[in-house]
Specification:
Blueprint (H helix, E strand, L loop, with lengths): L3 E4 L6 H12 L2 E4 H11 L2 H12 L5 H14 L6 E4 L5 H13 L6 E6 L2 H15 L7 H15 L2 H7 L3 E5 L4 H13 L2
Parallel strand pairs: 1-3, 1-4, 2-3, 4-5
Helix pairs in contact: 1-9, 2-3, 4-5, 6-7
The protein binds adenosine monophosphate (AMP).
Length: 190
């Protein structure tokens, strides 16, 4: 059972590498960003509530994303494991995740952080904005806010896993294949 938190700032490559990881290790990909965008596209009440935060690059309230993740973990009792992508983004989310996993007889195996500097992140997000149709990838002010929110609210989540001796990082710059190989070296040891 491998339960991985793939960590890093917006544009670090979490989505791309999650896709590679779930395919190779037959895990379930849980991206709160993807789940929220699906709710938004479906026009649900939750999606409409989340929209105002997402469009500014602010975090959606903890209770919303925690509830979504709890449902997904409970709905997949036979999973080989999960890749959490874009979650947890606050200490409260990390605590709630630990509790949910514990209630289901599970725990996080490792947090793996993708390290990418800010200049590269902004470049990547603006490039992605040209094809992703995501409003939050198309505006430099919103991108800057997402990085600011990451540094203020999300970066401390690494310490939460460091204290549990579950943190490691890999360089998130280079070819997608090379970065994936670095990730596999970590995952193979779990
Ligand atoms: P992402 O696709 O991970 O970049 O997420 C896009 C947006 O969705 C973020 O800028 C937040 O507004 C929201 N979001 C995604 N995941 C979370 C989370 N774990 N906690 C709060 N907001 C989130």
């Amino acid at each position: 059972m491998k339960n991985i938190v793939l960590f890093g700032p917006p544009g670090a490559g979490k989505g791309t590498q999650s896709t590679n990881i779930i395919e190779k290790y037959a895990l379930i990909h849980l991206s709160t960003g993807d789940l929220l965008r699906a709710e938004k596209a479906a026009g649900t009440e939750l999606g409409l509530k989340a929209k105002e935060f997402m469009e500014k690059g602010d975090l959606v309230p903890d209770s919303v994303v925690i509830g979504m993740i709890e449902n997904k973990v409970k709905a997949n009792p036979d999973a080989n494991g999960f890749v959490f992508d874009g979650f947890p983004r606050t200490i409260a989310q990390a605590e709630a995740l630990d509790q949910t996993l514990q209630e289901n007889g599970l725990s996080i195996s490792k947090m793996i952080a993708l390290e990418v500097d800010d200049d590269e992140l902004i470049k990547r997000l603006l490039e992605r904005g040209k094809v992703s149709n995501r409003p939050d990838d198309q505006n430099e002010e919103i991108i800057a806010n997402r990085i600011k929110v990451y540094n203020a609210e999300t970066a401390p989540v690494a310490d939460f896993y460091k204290k549990q001796d579950k943190f490691t990082s890999v360089k998130g710059i280079g070819s997608i294949d090379d970065i994936f190989e670095s990730l596999c070296k970590v995952i193979d040891q779990l």
